[in-house]
Amino acid sequence: MHDQGVDVRILGRYQSPPKIACSSAGLVTFRFAENAERVFQGNRKRVLHLLVGFPSNRVIFRPKCRRSLTYVTRCGGRLFSFPEPCGQFAYSKSEVEMDPFKATAVRAEWAKLVPQMTRLFRDQWACPELPGMEYQSVANLTGFLEAHGFAVERGVCGVPTAFLARKGSAGGGPRIGILAEYDALPSLDNAAVPHRSGTGRRPGHGCGHNHIGPANCGAAIAAAIAAEALSLQGEICVIGCPAEEILWGKIALQEAGVFDTFDALLTSHGDYQNGALSRPCYAVASGEFIFRGDSAHAGMGVARNALKTAEDAMAAFIAEADRFTGVNEKHVFRMAGIMPGVMPDEVRVWCSLRHRDIDPVMIAYRGIETVFRSVAARTGVEVEEKFVSASRGYLANDVLADLLDESLAQVGPPRWT
User: Fold this and answer.
1) Is 308 helix (H, G, I), strand (E, B) or coil?
2) What is the DSSP letter of 40?
3) Whether the Cβ atoms of residue 242 and residue 131 lie closer than 8 Å to each other
4) What is the pLDDT of residues 274-300, one digit of tens each?
5) Rg from Cα positions in the chain
6) C-alpha dihedral, 42 to 45 to 47 to 49, nearest 10°
């Protein structure tokens, strides 16, 4: 629809077509849901998803809740009413576009932090900790944040190695969350060299989490200090997310509602290229299956052979993998005996499944369980399923990615040493 050069477009799906009414107040008013009596002018934290395309501007907003809300903007004399939507969001480009002075302020604050972050990169690398056991890593990162004026809450929602650090005022602007990761991976120990050189430690940072934690904390600190110096309203928070490598920490925090009050959640990850990504990542499900049989010397033989049953069960699922098109399956035998001469009474198989959508992942996961139980039933071996976690992938947000890309172009990419 068009009015005085204003192109009004809606992102999302609606139960019924938009309704248009006139207003004599010289305003374009967007109203949603059943009861649209309340009007919130300029309070972007209370505005529902919508896009207004001006000749040289874009405005897209998100809601803090899904109830009756209204956004008012001066342009023309029409009242546009729509049923409650779902869609994407961002802020006015003119509101967020970084002028040279702001870009200079951010660069200056970032430059001050580089030596501290570099030291933390090395400290985190030298102390790799397995998922859920990242006590020293948390101490390093929270100490860094507290030294720069962040208020830190440790053990958030009963998760010992989770934390929440905040700086700024949430009442007068957006609440931005930046995610920090810091767990390591088993058996990937290595010296800080670009070739394989084990150190004797069992875990190691094979996914760059020794960079993600310090870099994202540094980004929060630089942004918070620059925002304060420039009198920009809002709150910047760092959410410490443990156990990322086993797909558990963020899910636990999500279940506890930690992310519910944020206007945007941001993160970064090391890569071979610089950019602001806006694409879905994979949905994942993970679980361990425990096969229990009889233990015996190999010379005696066993009727309920847990190891052979687990091997046959895994082979049976792989043989049926065509039923689960597009699903990527990985597994490892975590416990499968000590030596060939002794048949173990317990064997553990940890399986992980990936697909772009969660439904095929969960269908395949249940398919694994069904096949495993069927094979085990023929040999009398018991099977126990230990569900670890499952998650959809990130939701892509093109609008937010565009703004990040524009900011990256203005501030500039990282300079590696």
Assistant:
1) helix
2) B
3) yes
4) 888 887 789 999 999 999 999 988 677
5) 26
6) 130
